[in-house]
Design brief:
The chain is of the alpha/beta class. Helices cover 56% and strands 11% of the residues. It starts with a helix and ends with a helix. The N terminus is likely disordered. The structure holds nicotinamide-adenine-dinucleotide.
């Protein structure tokens, strides 16, 4: 199903078709540097696909499931339905549904402890990125013991976790396909990820029906997060020919569908394109990484609790402006594929039009500037220092960036 989905979606993009014509494909293979590409979860995609959950739990040997669920599911009654469906298939269910946005290490620990005490042998996460990350962390805490804090960083998880099934209900983070789970350390006012191959989900279920209830404000912030993943992984120093195809198609799906999803939330075709776009962007990011947008946004989440997608979206056009000297051709060629009206422009003008297009999108979505969310310019040097410590995205950025460049970017977002 996953292969079918990739084939069907990749073939609609002209640029991708160029890559996939046999001649250019082999030419590219002959000239490219070597690379590694990882894609772990089995993907089940389709409207209503969440109904396959009990079958998948059973196939993975699940007897007692830790169900980590978004609080919105409980409010709508959907959670009850999912619990009943699992129970009717003789699967025991232990539910943890108190995850808040931008989860803290304490929340991750509490969820893991519940799963350990209840002897759960499989973890299911249904919700936005905050829930999926909590579920992914719980799965490794149940088998490894310890606390989220012990594993924040790169490759610090000693043993595999329980099998996991991830069901995203936002079209934003791509957490269903990444090896990361992000938590806020309240005392340090820092956001940091657990990054380990043991965090790759076992199965991801992409069911666009679950995203129909997203209100416009969350549609726009989460959608911009997905656009950041697509564009950043496309421009990353770690991008390779395969991630470029994937990130480009992700950007295409998100750029064309996000404004419509914002206005017409009940349009299932648009929601489906957004969910698949977000998934592809996650696949791009899992392999090519993200860049300075994410590094500069982390301190805004850690210190001010700003929603991840809001902070990323706000920064995206200004980081792209900064990166322009290093990526004008690459960004211009991406832009030309996104808007037919930009195809006749020079690469530089197409790139600039894309940056302006993102700024217009932020206005349409009523994104507040940093000033409106209470961030004072006096703190910019401290934020910049913290951003530079988010080392991998900083290294991936296509142009070297300094603390004073970052302060300038924060200033641009302040109005
Ligand atoms: P979120 O999970 O915090 O959800 C935002 C809000 O939307 C919540 O109130 C939630 O209850 C609500 N919601 C979720 N689905 C809904 C639906 N279908 N209908 C109505 N309301 C719904 O937001 P997010 O942007 O998906 O996740 C953000 C988190 O993910 C951050 O902590 C961020 O750091 C992390 N993240 C992780 C990765 C990764 O690879 N693991 C990547 C990017 C971001």
């Amino acid at each position: 199903m996953y292969r079918y989905f990739l084939k069907e979606n990749l073939k609609i993009n002209q640029h991708t078709c160029q890559f996939l014509t046999e001649r250019s494909f082999y030419l590219r293979l002959l000239t490219m540097e070597s690379f590694r590409f990882l894609c772990h979860p089995e993907i089940l995609a389709g409207d209503g696909a969440v109904s396959l959950l009990p079958e998948k739990v059973k196939a993975l040997g699940g007897r007692k499931v830790l169900l980590v669920a978004d609080p919105f599911l409980a409010r709508t009654g959907k959670l009850k339905k999912i619990q009943q469906h699992l129970s009717s298939c003789q699967i025991q269910v232990v539910t943890y549904d108190s995850v808040t946005g931008e989860p803290t290490t304490e929340q991750g620990d509490a969820c893991g402890q519940l799963g350990r005490e209840e002897n759960c042998n499989l973890v299911v996460g249904i919700g936005g990125g905050s829930v999926l990350d909590t579920a992914k962390a719980a799965a490794i805490l149940i088998t490894n013991g310890g606390s989220v804090k012990d594993y924040q960083g790169l490759n610090k998880v000693p043993e595999p976790g329980l099998p996991t099934i991830m069901v995203p209900t936002t079209a934003g983070t791509g957490s269903e396909v990444t090896f990361t789970a992000v938590f806020v350390r309240k005392q340090l006012q820092k956001k940091a990820g657990i990054n380990s191959p043991f965090l790759y989900p076992t199965v991801a279920i992409l069911d666009a029906e679950l995203t129909l209830s997203l209100p416009p404000a969350i549609t726009s912030t989460t959608g911009l997060d997905a656009l950041c993943h697509a564009v950043e992984s496309y421009l990353s120093r770690k991008a390779n020919f395969l991630t470029e195809i994937i990130s480009c198609q992700a950007a295409n799906l998100i750029w064309k569908n996000l404004p419509v999803a914002f206005r017409e939330g009940s349009n299932i075709a648009v929601r489906r394109n957004m969910l698949y776009g977000s998934f592809l962007a996650g696949l791009g990011l899992a392999n090519a990484g993200v860049t300075a947008v994410h590094a500069i946004s982390y301190p805004l989440g850690g210190i001010f609790g700003m929603a991840h997608g809001l902070a990323n979206g706000l920064l995206l056009p200004y980081v792209l402006e900064f990166n322009l000297p290093a990526v004008v051709e690459k960004l211009g060629s991406l832009a030309k594929q996104l808007e037919p009206g930009w195809q006749e422009l020079s690469l530089e003008k197409a790139a600039l039009s894309f940056v302006e297009g993102i700024k217009n999108l932020l206005k349409e979505f009523h994104f507040p500037g940093l000033k409106q969310v209470g961030v004072c310019p006096e703190i910019f040097p401290r934020l910049a220092e913290e951003a530079l410590k988010v080392s991998v995205p900083i290294q991936n950025n296509p142009r070297d960036i300094t603390a004073s460049d970052i302060v300038h970017i924060y200033e641009s977002c302040w109005q």
